[in-house]
Each structure stands twice: as C-alpha cells, then as structure tokens.
Specification:
Helix content: 40-55%
CATH class of the largest domain: Alpha Beta
CATH architecture of the largest domain: 3-Layer(aba) Sandwich
Strand content: 15-25%
CATH topology of the largest domain: D-Maltodextrin-Binding Protein, domain 2
Order of helices and strands: HEHEHEHEHEHEHEHEEHHEH
Structural class: alpha/beta
Number of strands: 10
Largest sheet: 10 strands, mixed
Shape: globular
Number of helices: 11
Length: about 325
Amino acid sequence: MFSRSFKVGSAIAGVLFSLAVGAQDYPSKSLRMIVPFPPGGVTDIVARAVAAKLAIELGQAVVVENRAGASGAIGAEAGARAPADGYTLVMGNISTLAINPVTFAKLPYDAVASFDPVSMVAIQPLIIAVHPALPVKSLGELVLLAKSQPGKLNYGTAGSSIYLAVEFFSAAAGIKMNHIPYKGSAPALTDLMGGQIQVLFDPFSSLYPHVASGKLRALAVTTDKRSATAPNLPTVAETGYANFDISSWQGIVVPAGTPKSVIQRLNRDLVKVLSTPEMKERFAQYSAVTAASTPEQFSGYIKEEIARWQKVAVDAGIKPE
C-alpha cells in the first residue's frame, strides 16, 4: 500500500514540477490568437493591434488566426478545445462570451466553464447607419419609415450580439425589419454600401470611416453617452428610448485549465500593453477605450453580461435556436 501511494504521489509531484518549470520557461515558442470572426471587423482590428504589442512583451510571435462562422461559435469552440498550455489565446467578445449562450440552443462550448479569463481589452459603441439613398436623416425618421413598410427594410448583423441589440431596439420602437445575417462586418458593409441592405448596426470602428467619407449615413450611437470621436451623433436614449445602452466589447480568454502562473504572466503583459498612450490613442481613433482588468474582474463581467442579455432576450421574446 505504502509503495503504491508513494508511486502515485511521486507521479503527481512530477507533473506539478513539470508545470512549474514550464510556467517559468513560458513562452518558449510562438502563440496563436484565435479571432472567431473574419478580417476587417472590430474584433479583428482589436486583436491585431494587441497581438503586435503583446508579442514584444512576451518575446515571441503572436499569430492571429481568423476562424469565422456561426456568430463566432466555430472559432470559440476551436479555442476551447485547444491545449490548456498558454499558447492559444482567444479574442472573445460580447457575441462569443455573452450572447451566444443566450441565443444558441446547443452551443459547442460553455462560455464560462470552457475558458479561463485573462483580461478585458476594449469597449466601444455601436453605430446605427443607413444607405445614403434611404430617405431618412434621423433615427425617428427611420422608425417612421419602418412602421410604414413593416418587414420590407433589410437590416444586416455580423454576430448574434448585434442581432439581439437590433431586435431589442425594434421591440422598443414597435417596428419590424427583415434580418440578413452575415459572417462578419466586412461583407455586411459591402452590402450596405451596395444597397442590398438598408440598415446596419455595427461597432464604431467598422462603420465610422465610411460615415466620415460620406458613403454611409449615421443616425445614432447605442451607448448612453455620445462618442468623443463623433460628438454630433445623438444617442439612442436621446431620441426617446430611455436607458438604451449597448456596447461592443472584447477580452482575451484561454482554454480552461491553463496554469494560473501563465494567466498571470499574460495578464501582466496585457495590462502593460493596454496602459500605453500609443494603444489608448489607437483605440480612440475608433471611439474605443482600453479596458484592462484582472482575470477575476473579467470573469465577473462575463457572468453579469450573460444574465443581462438573458433578460433582454426574454423581454424581447427571443428564444434560443
């Protein structure tokens, strides 16, 4: 009995020693950062900016890998199934970590149990934009037009979070528009500028450059405060929908079971990267703010967001599919 217990204990000690040594040597090779959406969208923009600076802090390359599809579920699942060794990071966001658990009846990962949070990264507003040919110049005019043509206006969404946001607004405004889902912001923008869809809710960083160039018309931002980048744009709340406050956010998670020492190292370097004036200024170009946090703070935020959107879905009559 003693001999067998000693062997088991020795084996466990060996594993723990190996993990400790591995954590001390981390990172000894390049990392990959899975982005569960196509190139060009806000989550991809944020990921590439962070990956470039994080690589300098870690002393190893951080390669961005786009794995789009199913509102981010395909890429998130790939991240959840990756080895928990710190060499696979997932740039999660409001869709993959808070909305998908509410809108998917069967999700191939658990937004809480499948990941260990590292840190929040960024927060930014959505813009409500329309094709310039649409005869509306305000959110109120859009609502009146939609009411006069129920189900005829096409709106696009890139991700389940934006779908839920639009349905939440539509329920509040008493309108019905036709939903056209997209795998990412870039194809949705292409169709909006081409006139295939008439309305798009999307993160500020994706839409505003096209608004500034005159290719699209912005009607409002979805946060409770106006954007410093576009102060003339009213908030949805200002147009008559009190307490309407929706933000797009991103944060980094790793597969559940990743050594805590590795998570601490990643968090330390991420906080350093996000605290630099250069990163703050870069994010500000897209009306985004850096949002570094502890792993525990990010974990709590994810749970709060899931609960919040669960209530929104119930109130709007949206059932998981």
